[in-house]
Prior knowledge:
Layout: E1 3-5, E2 12-14, E3 18-27, E4 32-38, E5 47-48, E6 51-53, H1 60-72, E7 80-88, E8 94-103, E9 115-122, H2 132-138, H3 141-158
Parallel strand pairs: 3-8
Antiparallel strand pairs: 1-2, 3-4, 3-6, 4-5, 4-9, 7-8
Amino acid sequence: MYLRWWRMGHSIVNENQINAVGIWFYALDTRRNLFLMRNDKKYHGCWGLPGGKIETGESLYDALERECREELGAMPEYVKLTPVEKFTSDNNRFSYHTFFCVIEEEFIPELNHEHVGYAWIDSGLIPKPLHPGFWSTLKVDDVASKIEQVRDLYTSQCEI
């Protein structure tokens, strides 16, 4: 089994499995989160995050940047980018790396064919139907705790 060490988040990426990334945006100006509505056959109409498969030789950060350019039109400038979860399937053939990204203000994404809509939604509210993978991420207490800590830290700094 060949493993490659990536600098971003010091995550180990197994090249013998499918690896993917997702990025959860939180805007300080409105205290809302960005969700995208999917346009694929399997999860059409489900809300989720920008992201996708990591290409061969790509770092986690490079994949995040590329996916944002493809799905949102650009990678927005950010205040803080934090890894919050690495999900690995039971058969160890798939890993998904979720990042929480604090940005100063909301933006209007330029969606590609992978999504049919977007919404900036107040913190604490979850759109439905939600992509099942993202639903699983939300149910992990450690993920919720990390996101709450980062969100609270940067939101309180904006009030000073």
